[in-house]
Amino acid sequence: LQEQVQSLSELCTKFVADLERKDLADNAPPNGEQAQGPEISNLLEHLKEERTDQEKYFTDLNSWLQANATQTSSQYHAISTSLQQVAQALAPLASEASSSDTPEIPGSDTEPRQTKGNVLQEIRQALLENNTRNRANDNFLAAANHLIGAANAERQNLTALIATQREENERLLAHFADQIALEIRGQKHSFVDAMEKATALNVEGQLRELKAQISGQLVEMAKGVERLSEERKVLEHQIAELLAFKSRFTPADYGDMPSIAPGEYMPQVVTQSSQHRRQAEPAGQGRGPHLSVNSQQPSRGQSRSPSPGPASKRPLPSPNQFQPMPNQIPQMGQRF
Predict the structure, then answer these.
(1) pTM of this prediction?
(2) DSSP class of residue 307?
(3) Is 36 within the bounds of a domain?
(4) 288: helix, strand or coil
(5) Polar residues: which segments have biased composition (predicted)?
(6) Residue 54 falls within a domain, yes or no?
C-alpha cells in the first residue's frame, strides 16, 4: 500500500512537470518574433498564479494521501495482527487429527494446545448458541408475523361483523318504530272511541238527572201554585168578610167611623168560636191572618148581609185593635 501511495505521488509530480513544460512551450514566442508588450507579462503572471495554485493543490493532495496511507496501513496492520492471532488459534485444529494417532511425548508442550482447544470450543459453542438464538428469533418473528396477520384478518372480520350488526340493528329499530307507531295509532283511535262513548253516556246520564231534578222542581212548583191558589181564595174570602163587616156599621147608629185606607189597618175581629178553632188547629197549618166574624164561613150561595145579633150592639173597636195589612199580595211563584 505504501508503494502504491509513493507511485501515485511520483505520477502527480511528473504530471505537474509535464504541465509546466507544456505551458512554457505554448507561451514561448515563435521564431523571428520578439515577445514584447504588457500581454506577455500578464500571461506570465497568470501562469505563475496557476502554477502556485496547482502546487498548493498537489501538496494538499500529497498530504492527504500520506495521511490516508498511514491510517490504512495502521488499520491493515491491526487486521493482519488479528488475523494472525485467529490463524494461530485455528492452527491446532488441523494438527489435532494427526496428533490423535501419534502418542504423546512426555514433557511436550500440551497445555497451550489444550487452552487453544478450549478457546476454540468456546467460540464454537458461542457460534452455535448464536445460531440457535437467531433461529429462535426467526421463529419468533415468523410467529409474530403470523399473529399480526391473524389479528389484521380478525380485525377486518370484526369490522365487517360490526357493520352487519349495525345494519341489522337499524332495520330492527325501524321495524320497532313502525310497530310502535301503529300501536300508538290504534290505542289513540280506541281511546277516542272510548272517550266518545263515555261522553255520550255521561251526557245521557246528566240529561236523565236533569230531567229528574226538573220534574221534581216542577212538581214542587205545581204544589206551590195550588197552595197559592188556595191561599188566594182564603184571602179573597177574608177580604169579602171584611167588606161585609165594614158595610154593617153605619154612621146613623155608631156616629162617624174613622176612615181606613186600603192596606193600612185591618181590624182584628175574632169571635169566641174562631178563637177556639184557632187553638184547635195545629201550628203551621193555616197561612195568613185569620179574620172572621162568625165561626162558620158563608158559602157561595148564601148572602153576605150581616144577620142581626149581639155583634150589632157591640161598641166600636178601638184604633189599637187594628193591625197593618200586607202591602201587596204574594205573587204566584213566591212561597210563604
Answers:
(1) 0.23
(2) P
(3) yes
(4) coil
(5) 319-336
(6) yes
Count of positions (residues) in the chain: 336
- As a 3-state breakdown, the chain gives helix, strand, coil percent values, each rounded to 5, of 75, 0, 25
Instruction: Encode the chain (336 residues) as per-residue pLDDT tens digits.
Output: 556 666 666 766 777 677 666 666 665 555 544 445 567 777 777 777 877 887 888 888 888 888 888 888 888 888 888 888 877 766 655 455 445 444 444 444 444 445 555 777 887 888 888 888 888 888 888 888 888 888 888 888 888 889 888 999 899 999 988 888 888 888 888 888 887 777 766 777 788 888 888 988 899 999 999 999 999 999 999 999 999 888 887 554 444 444 444 444 444 444 444 444 445 444 444 444 444 444 444 444 444 444 444 444 444 444 444 444 444 444 444 443
Asked whether residue 19 is assigned to any structural domain, the reply reads yes
Cα 31 to Cα 27, 28, 40: the distances in Å are 13, 9, 16
The count of domains in the chain is 1
Q: Which three cell numbers stand for residue 234?
A: 182564603
- DSSP state letters, 217-277: HHHHHHHHHHHHHHHHHHHHHHHHHHHHHHHH--HHHH-------TTT-EE--B-HHHHHH
State how far the alpha carbon of 322 is from the alpha carbons of 166, 242, 292, 316, in Å: 108, 12, 14, 12
Report if residue 18 sits inside a domain. Answer: yes
